[in-house]
Amino acid sequence: MNQPQAVPQTDRVDHFFSFPGARNDRWRGLHVAARDWSRGSGSAATVKGLFEGLVAYEGFFAYPGRQLLATLRQRIDSGQAAGAAGLAQRISEAIVTRSYKSDAGDWQSVETLAETPPDLNTPTLARGQGHRPYFEMLVVAPGAARRGESVIEQIRRLRRGEDAFIYEPVPVGSFEEAICAAILNPALAAVTIYEGFDHESAADLPVLRDFLASAGLDAASIAGDDLPLSLADALKRVRPELDIYLLSDRHVERIAGDVRAANIRRVLYAVEELLELHLCVLEGVADRYRTPFFDNLKAYARRPISTFHALPIARGKSVFKSDWIRDMGEFYGLNIFLAESSATTGGLDSLLEPTGNIKLAQEMAARAFGADHVFFVTNGTSTSNKMVHQALVAPGDIVLLDRNCHKSHHYGLVLAGGQPLYIDAFPMTEYSMYGAVPLSSIKKALLDLKAEGRLDRAKMVDLTNCTFDGHIYNTRRVMEECLAIKPDLIFLWDEAWFGFARWSPFLRPRTAMGAAEAIEKWMKDPASVQAYEAQQKELGKNPSAAKLLETRLIPDPSQIRLRVYQTNSTHKSMSALRQGSMLLVRDVDFGQVEAQFHEAVFTHASTSPNQQLIASLDIARRQMELEGYGLVANAIEIALDIRKEVNAHPVISKYFRVLSASEMIPDEYRQTGFVDFLEPGTDWEDQVRSMHEDEFCLDPTRMTLVCGTAGFDGTQFKKLMADDYDIQFNKTSRNSVLLQSNINNTRSDVANLIRVLLEISRKIEADLAKGGENGHAAFAARIKSLMQDVPDLPNFSHFHDAFRWDAGKTTPEGDMRSAFYSAYYADGCEYLPLNSPEVDQRLKSGPEMISANFVIPYPPGFPIMVPGQVISPETIDFMRKLDVKEIHGFERAKGLKLIRPDHAKNHIRK
Hints:
The chain is an alpha/beta fold. The chain contains 34 helices and 24 strands. The strands form seven sheets. Strands 6-15-14-13-11-7-8 form a seven-stranded mixed beta sheet, sandwiched between helices. A five-stranded parallel beta sheet has the order 2-1-3-4-5. α10 links the parallel β4 (243-248) and β5. α17 (381-392) packs parallel to α18 (407-416), α20 (475-485) packs across α21 (512-524) and α26 (611-648) crosses α30 (747-787). 46% of the residues are buried. Residues 291-517, 564-739 form the Orn/Lys/Arg decarboxylases family 1 pyridoxal-P attachment site domain. Keywords: Aminotransferase, Transferase. InterPro entries: LL-DAP_aminotransferase (IPR050881), Orn/Lys/Arg_deCO2ase_major_dom (IPR000310), PyrdxlP-dep_Trfase (IPR015424), PyrdxlP-dep_Trfase_major (IPR015421). Its cofactor is pyridoxal 5'-phosphate.
């Protein structure tokens, strides 16, 4: 088989966002066309055209391989319609079912079609204990087209029955093809690089080259004159989980000692036996496959243990010997009880103070996520956030906080005594939601503190990335510009919904750990000092605040103390049990706070953590390191498929639509002009440029589906879908629901969603047809109420003076902790019914109404009132227009809980 060929512009290689499913569709399309040809209703030209377009990609995959493709080409060229149809069907089914990973017959060129259809069961469930995980290894070597079969045969001869895994090589002959293979082929787990390969592909790949340039992966952007080391660096930037091996016939000792070889797992002398390489490859994958805690937990469950501790359910005897709760055992199975224990010895470990397999599992998670340290948390990311606040924030410290963030951050500051300086995100009033916090607002808050001589009190910037609705910060730019104002700021990025992003080369740079890694690399580059000094010269000695606000600030690399914390709800986007969370640390000063960090762990973590939760965190890390890249690519493709099918459907689109990036993010925050993932003419290069440059981007896996145009409010539609159609959503707004694709979704899920939306749309049309003019008028009025008569979103007003005793004159921070606990005294509080005339009178004439607690409506799901906040007319108007049932912190029968003005005065400190 030849090298990968150029791809027609109608089927471009740059549309990688939809490649996983598109490959299946292309093979299925070829199979259908060949079948029609064999039946006399199709043409050989059609089949040949489809085959040529498909072959352009297939050199980046081990299966079907050169031999099968050559056989298929020969049958097409020689007019063997039936033979071509049969072979195309067999290959297509093997790719869709993934049977080629365990069935050697799928690789044979001789037809062996069975009478029965192929096994469509999930491979990992269908093959039991005899299953050996399958992966592919990229081999970058000169003359790969000529030497490919020899390389494949040599590696296959090295296989042994005792090998834990089985793999197939994928030979390519150039730098460009290696990058393309790494992007396209999610099955790759290792890369072997021989010296002497070309930089450019023999095929004409102009779109790929444009993409490589935009991503900084072209020849001009890759540092160094050593092509193998440059390729290793580029591959790690695309997929950091890959093991890379270099076979050289030069002085391998010198190469191994080169600092640029840090990305290479092992350097081998090329003339030595390939067995050493084979063993290294298996060992590398085994290192990622190992799950220290889960492995020990399985071994523990197999041992005959007598338990004399306070956990009767352990070993399951109280369950399976019971006449009354045996059904629970039958439902969950025996292993979950055999693996339960409150012991921290005998092969297990302590989550609070790990020294054994949990410690090792956390170290492996740190490696996988690009962190220095990782803490497993079994109480959810709410607890992870509170741990960070308690460990790093002291009473009186100022924390710049998005008011739209999860309530755990607000409560964390109450517990720590930090003073929140609330910054509002940009509003999306039409959809009753907020976006993210503009960088200009964050910089202004820091510069205001500096002007008051209070910048030393600013301890942390705390932001949600990505937001519930999918807004992603330009994390690197935010941190760099903030560090230019205060070089020792701590950053807490709540990435509860974004943990999966580590495994996407497009999303990774916008994660906290990805941005921190980039900043660290920049700090070591001498060019960083030059850039900083040049900007300082341009700004002058005393630049105005206005000048600093309009300038993209460059921090002093010699002064930066990079301190970055990231929390992720592993259970929200990876295969972990509910409440499984990870806390990631990349803090140059962590050694100075480690003791107090452990105190925070002792404070918030349960002394009886669930073993299954810990094991699932261990397992989630294993899965993402070995197949996360492909799983995330599939989740993105699923989301794009939903967007396309909903917005383009002639009936569904009359009543429902998924909002585009341009509708979710105002123009001023999309500097590249990026409109949407599916905008005509948009390609991968446009998306990469947007991810690099725009202030905010939209997570493609999060879809805001507008349902108000169908006459449903968000809560009503969510309930309808769950109760009547067994389709579950998460968040709602006044006129929308949030759909989230994840690594669990399939195209069958998409088909079901589209079927249901079409059914609902047709029912709306039928009801309108029956209702006549009155029905149409009522429907239009309902839509107007949901889509136009929306309440303005209330920004944070200010803290009452009683709780600003230690605040600046112009900066809005306040002592929320004192306000929170002052509400504990019943005689110091009062209640006012929301719609009472007294509320309006006090808004007009005073005294001011002071919130005694957090008030959090669902939706929108963030506090519209916090303890100590002066309640504004906008907040009351918003509350009165809310038509949701769930409002935390508000009892309708009693009304608003307020701190009495005379009681508040007693808290004013002189």
